[in-house]
UniProtKB/TrEMBL annotation:
This is Lrp/AsnC family transcriptional regulator. It comes from Sedimentitalea xiamensis. Keywords: DNA-binding, Transcription, Transcription regulation. InterPro entries: ArsR-like_HTH, AsnC-type_HTH_dom, Dimeric_a/b-barrel, Tscrpt_reg_AsnC-like, Tscrpt_reg_AsnC/Lrp_C, Tscrpt_reg_HTH_AsnC-type_CS, WH-like_DNA-bd_sf, WH_DNA-bd_sf. It holds the Pfam family HTH_24. Residues 3-64 form the HTH asnC-type domain.
Amino acid sequence: MTLDTIDRKILASLQKSGRMSNSDLSNRVNLSPSACHRRVQRLEADGYIRGYVALLDPRKIGVPTTVFVEITLQAQADEVLEAFEKAVARIPDVLECHLMAGTADYILKIVAENTEDYARIHRQHLTRLPGVAQMQSSFALRTVFKTTALPI
């Protein structure tokens, strides 16, 4: 399926406000409510829309500290990568894990209460990850820009 202009407007609008009513969405993209609803259902069924979430304020939740961790593994064998990926997916404080091309094999995005909490996460989880040869942690001082919206 290819996306037309209306599909793109629907996706862009829902990325900014996923709780928007179908009536408001249909007005925004100049479609009837029933036609708009059918398009949204099709975009969901075709996998363009994977789900809907609430974006929480990390400070209010008590995890204002963001840490990026570069990880280099001892080897690149499939079983080493697979074991690492399964283990890291079980750490609740890890928001993202990316397999990289470059100096690190993986980059993790972790949230914590503060540096002491990160030390706990490091001690209890990160040091126990299989196949790790080296780890480098960088603390974010301030988030300058952040979005979840993909360019449409």
